Amino acid sequence: MTDGNGRADSVVDALERHLVHDVPPLRLQRARRAFLTQGFVKTGFLAPRDVKKFLAEETESLMGRHAVRRDGVFAETGGTPRRMRNVRRAEIAEHGRILPGVYASEGLREALSAVAGEEVLACPYAPEQFVITELTRSGDTHGWHWDDYSFALVWVIDCPPLERGGFVQCVPRTEWDKEDPQLHRQFVSRPIHSVELRPGDLYFLRSDTTLHRVYPVSGGRRLIVNMGYAARRDLAKSLSHETMDALWADPVPDTAIGGTEQENSPWRRTSCGGTSESPDSSSTT
Question: What is the rounded CA–CA span in Å between residue 177 and residue 214?
Fold first, then answer.
């Protein structure tokens, strides 16, 4: 066993011991009530400080070696933007140890199942299992969207202050029609909830029926690990993955521009001619 694998095993062991011994059932029950009501709940209590620390260290290392800049807009979500640097599941699985180990933790999935009120399964579509995203430039955002699968657990490694965009927004109990997403109809039909985030937070999201976005940052840095999970019902669905496949496609170098691909030749997805006007923070409840 390599040192890297040994460290990963010890981190997963620490996580699972914490979940068994330090997380009372009442805490999970309270989280479940919030999750079922709003489609979103903070779950920082699921991981101890040391596990968050080691996961953050590996995330920073992977960002430093494998991050690629990707900017685009997506017709399937009404022309909403994605502006970020990120690391795909393939690079994390090849070069990481702790993130894949934590994702595979049966104890973590059992705890998430208690919060969800139903069985939480590993995502059957590998690219959506775990990814890293970083927002640093003014205007960087993971714009309004839904996910293909039912659940997402997000580890907040770094986050700007509230006034610089350190929060997420959610519209629960919504449905995604990829042919006609009708974002503005969703905004006026349901309340928009905004939740402040800080480094070290975790949150659990019913991501297929909760329209959500990361508010555009105007300073600082937002660095997260997103872990996607499925429900049993997802396994019977005929799902397409247009936005995910496009977002994580290999970037095409622009040979006419000097410098690095990451900074000067951003990948761009332009399947939609227009853009969607999104509510600002004054539209929240």
Answer: 20
- Closest to 62 (Cα-Cα) out of 130, 141, 160: 130
pTM: 0.84
Q: Which of 157, 185, 153 is nearest to 41 (CA)?
A: 153
Q: Specify the pLDDT at position 24.
A: 96
Question: What's the per-residue H, E or C state across the chain?
Answer: CCHHHHHHHHHHHHHHHHHHHCCCHHHHHHHHHHHHHHCEEECHHHCCHHHHHHHHHHHHHHHHHHCEEEEEEEHHHCCEEEEEEEECHHHHHHHCCHHHHHHCCHHHHHHHHHHHCCCCEECCCHHHCEEEEEECCCCCEEEEECCCCCEEEEEEEECCCHHHCCEEEEECCCCCCCCCCCHHHHHHHCCEEEEECCCCCEEEEECCCCEEEECCCCCCCEEEEEEEEECHHHHHCCCCCHHHHHHCCCCCCCCCCCCCHHHHCCEEEECCCCCCCCCCHHHEC
Structure tokens at 92: 């994390």
Average pLDDT for runs of 10 along the chain of length 285: 76 98 97 96 98 98 96 87 95 98 98 98 96 97 94 98 97 89 90 96 97 96 98 84 61 41 36 37 35
